[in-house]
Write a structure and sequence with these properties.
Elements lengths: L1 E3 L2 E3 L4 H10 L7 H4 L3 H4 L6 E2 L11 H12 L1 H11 L5 H24 L1 H8 L3 H20 L21 H6 L2 H13 L4 H20 L1 H43 L4
Length: 259
């Protein structure tokens, strides 16, 4: 029997099935032809646990990079960045952007590299992290699809240069991105090299979009930017729901391990 996606599928154990078939002249159908009682017939089947959706679905490097890019939401951050840096001289904006993106990258890498140790120290299970991360992603995605008005991160004076907060965090490296990296690091600790590449690639693409924000705003317009952000939000909603389902499935498997 194989466990795949929560469904038990029986497969024959050829090591035991072969001699029985030869003993009965190749007849395998029916209790009389097999020469075995129903209890004995069970010995022809073996239990083999194989990875399936019941555990966290293995994520490829490309999928991890794309998911993290959706979480970083560079298109949605362009308008906020322009609002926060609106009164900063033009020659300083790019310098500030690069500095804040670098800080955000370091924060993401920190959570990626110490994620497993942090989970062990806090005594958290992978299932709880998957559910919590999925809920956070879902809230972020809903905000992307149905944005709320009246939210601003601008300083009172409007001419102060931001430092780490709010650009590096929480706008770029937010709680949802950190939770996602914690989940990757805890469930696939042997693939930290791949996740480092994924974080670097997603951060680089996000940085390019943010640096070219003014040109993209002029090219797509405000309505075009909103359309792109809502599309990204819809995709992120699907990812968030899948993370929650994976967490629930993993929790149920821990409660009722396969015997």
């Amino acid at each position: 029997m194989r466990i795949h996606g929560g469904t038990r599928i029986f497969v024959p154990d050829t090591a035991q099935l072969g001699p029985a078939l030869r003993h009965n002249g190749g007849q395998s159908n029916g209790a009389e032809g097999s020469g075995c009682n129903p209890e004995g017939r069970r010995s022809f089947w073996r239990l083999a646990a194989v990875p399936g959706p019941a555990a966290m679905v293995a994520m490829t490097l490309l999928a991890a990079a794309v998911t993290l890019l959706l979480i970083l939401d560079p298109f949605g951050n362009i308008a906020l960045f322009n609002s926060i840096l609106g009164k900063i001289p033009a020659h300083r904006r790019r310098v500030i952007l690069i500095r804040e993106i670098a800080f955000a990258y370091l924060l993401l890498m920190l959570f990626l590299l110490v994620g497993g140790q942090l989970l062990g120290f806090l005594g958290l299970q992978q299932s709880s992290l998957s559910i919590a991360g999925g809920i956070m992603l879902f809230m972020i995605a809903i905000g992307m699809v149905f944005p709320k008005s009246g939210v601003t991160f601008s300083s009172e004076s409007g001419d102060d240069e931001p430092f780490i907060v709010p650009l590096a965090t929480p706008l770029i490296a937010g709680p949802s991105g950190m939770a996602f990296l914690l989940l990757l690091a805890s469930q696939h600790p042997g693939r930290l090299g791949e996740w480092t590449v994924a974080v670097t690639a997603a951060s680089a693409v996000s940085a390019a979009i943010l640096i070219l924000g003014d040109r993209l705003m002029g090219l797509l317009g405000s309505r075009g930017m909103r359309a792109v952000e809502r599309l990204m939000g819809m995709i992120l909603t699907l990812i968030a729901v899948q993370m929650i389902l994976n967490g629930v499935s993993l929790y149920m498997d821990n409660l009722h391990p396969a015997g």
